[in-house]
């Protein structure tokens, strides 16, 4: 097994565990630039990986009592619908356009986090 891949997975899982999100923002650039995985495949693979570390983190959050079931259920409805639409739209964008949209999203998200 490739040590680079394991370290990338560790870092993204750690970030997701600490912040409750953010692992994907590390995974996609790492898969594109370090592992040289094609843009569409890195986005799809990231979603699959996030499922596993979100599941494990959720179990720990639930065990520690830091979990809001009502909000989770309500947000999940929109998330499922959005996930279906997003997955279907992924291949509609060129790799360049996908990278640009992701980059803009990251810039906007980072500015909102700071202010």
Automatic annotation (TrEMBL):
The chain crosses the membrane at residues 6-30, 42-61. Pfam families: TauE. Its main location: membrane. Keywords: Cell membrane, Membrane, Transmembrane, Transmembrane helix. It comes from Alkalithermobacter thermoalcaliphilus JW-YL-7 = DSM 7308. One of its GO terms (cellular component) is plasma membrane. It is a multi-pass membrane protein. This is Probable membrane transporter protein.
